Amino acid sequence: MRNVGGERRYPTIARVRLPLDTVLLARYLIGKLLVRETGNGTLSGRIVETEAYPIGDAASHAHRGMTLRNRALFLSRGHAYIYIAYGTSSMVNVSSEAVGVGAGVLIRALEPLDGIASMQRNRGVESVRDLARGPGRLAAALEVDRSQDGIDLCRPGPLRLARDDQASPEIGVSRRIGLSRETERLLRFYVRGSPFVSGPKRLNL
DNA sequence: AGTGCGATTGACT
DNA sequence: GTCAATCGCACTA
């Protein structure tokens, strides 16, 4: 979506447009845009991979109740929950239910759009394909960390969601990645055929 | 105050 | 394909 000046526009997504269900939201977010405004300009990417962590899911950080770390999961749908995994990688999630209900959608990969040169600098990597292929990588590329935890992604600000008027991509479904206590439910969604999707090949068919 | 564990990544065989 | 680095945080006492 570009205007005549060639600059991409990022229309925000009203909260009421977000599905009121974690799994539906995970699917809905495929093809939408994640936009990061920094002092040095705009960084953005198309969401090509998500995972749902719904109500009652034993693997969800919200499963054992609200804590200092996970409280953003209990905000109304469309707020950022950001945490650090393995001491080094920040993970970007979207809260996905009503206020007081803990659930979220993990954004696992982006197709880089604007600010690619900045992302390459942030990641120390040239390959555009590898800039945001993986949850920790995309956070590093977009300069996202715990200081954006709790931000409303449905309002203008340093981190937000945006629409993109493109043909709806073909969405694939698989089990989730990287969980030790694996559930059998199909809670991972991705753009079929996209080179920007993470995960083993057999899960991306 | 101490312990154990990851919703990962990058380096390596 | 394997494997270890790394540290914030929840949990136990």
Task: Note down, in words, how this protein is organized.
- The protein is an alpha+beta fold and 205 residues long.
- Helix content is 13%, strand content 26%.
- The chain has four helices and eight strands; from the N terminus they run αβββββαααβββ.
- It has helices at 22-28, 116-123, 128-131, 135-141; strands at 33-38, 41-53, 80-85, 89-95, 104-112, 159-162, 171-174, 188-191.
- Strands 1, 2, 3, 4, 5, 6, 7 and 8 form an eight-stranded antiparallel β-sheet that branches.
- Strand 4 (89-95) and strand 5 (104-112) form a beta hairpin.
- It is globular.
- The model has no long low-confidence stretch (mean pLDDT 94).
- The protein binds a DNA duplex (13 and 13 nucleotides) through residues 51, 53, 59-61, 64, 67-69, 83-89, 91, 93, 106, 108, 134-137, 146, 176-180.
Can you describe this structure in just a few lines?
This protein has four helices and eight strands; from the N terminus they run H-E-E-E-E-E-H-H-H-E-E-E.
Lay out the secondary structure.
Blueprint: H1 22-28, E1 33-38, E2 41-53, E3 80-85, E4 89-95, E5 104-112, H2 116-123, H3 128-131, H4 135-141, E6 159-162, E7 171-174, E8 188-191
Antiparallel strand pairs: 1-2, 1-6, 2-5, 2-8, 3-4, 4-5, 7-8
The structure holds a DNA duplex (13 and 13 nucleotides).
